[in-house]
Amino acid sequence: MFTPVNILIGLIVLLLLWLVFSYNRLVTLRNRVKEAWADIDVQLKRRYDLIPNLVETVKGYATHEREIFERVTKARASAMSAEQSGDPKKVGEAENQLAGALKSLFAVSENYPDLKASENFIELQKEIRDTEDKIQASRRFYNRNVKEINTKVEMFPVNLVAGMFGFEKQDFFEIENKEERDPVNVSF
């Protein structure tokens, strides 16, 4: 029978089910963001492990390019330090500096034909390129998950559940350097 008490109990049960479902969905999304960040972390660690080998290989050929080596080494240390903070904005800034330093290092290699032909250098270059591709894929995966949780945290009525249980918006892993967003000018 549909008495007012039964209807009220039914509505309360539905409300509680919705509350549990919403909470569990937010937990799932938060864990996906953490997983995505861990994927980025793994690829950054791989890159940090490869960079000293690359620097040493290039050093053997380009002894007078010390400033570039120091810049790469400082950028790597800065990126590793930022990574430990776990703040996507800090990590993004440091990673952009490291990417710029690596571009300079690869540009130096263009001046040394023997280096460009070195099997070790070619293999390291391939490994770093592969790692950079994986970092980009991981960043996209992370940002997709951040977008999903941020949308849920902001949308009514789930935002009420998010507020009750302390779910917050997450930061995207973005490029901070405006120049890196602009198209590259190539002239011959």
Describe what is shown at a glance:
The chain is an all-alpha fold. 79% of the residues lie in helices and 0% in strands. The chain has a single domain (4-168), classed as LemA-like domain (de novo design (two linked rop proteins), Up-down Bundle), CATH 1.20.1440.
What would CATH call the class? Mainly Alpha
Basic shape: rod-shaped
Helix percent reads over 70%
In N-to-C order, the SSE pattern is HHHHHH
If you average the pLDDT, what whole number results?
Answer: 82
Count of DSSP-assigned helices: 6
Could you say which structural class the secondary elements and strand pairing correspond to?
mainly alpha
Number of domains: 1
**CATH fold assignment:** de novo design (two linked rop proteins)
The count of β-strands is: 0
Summarize the main sheet: none
Distance between the termini: 83 Å
Proportion of β residues?
Answer: under 5%
Rg computed from alpha carbons, rounded to a whole number of angstroms? 24 Å
Low-confidence stretches: 183-188
Report the CATH superfamily: LemA-like domain
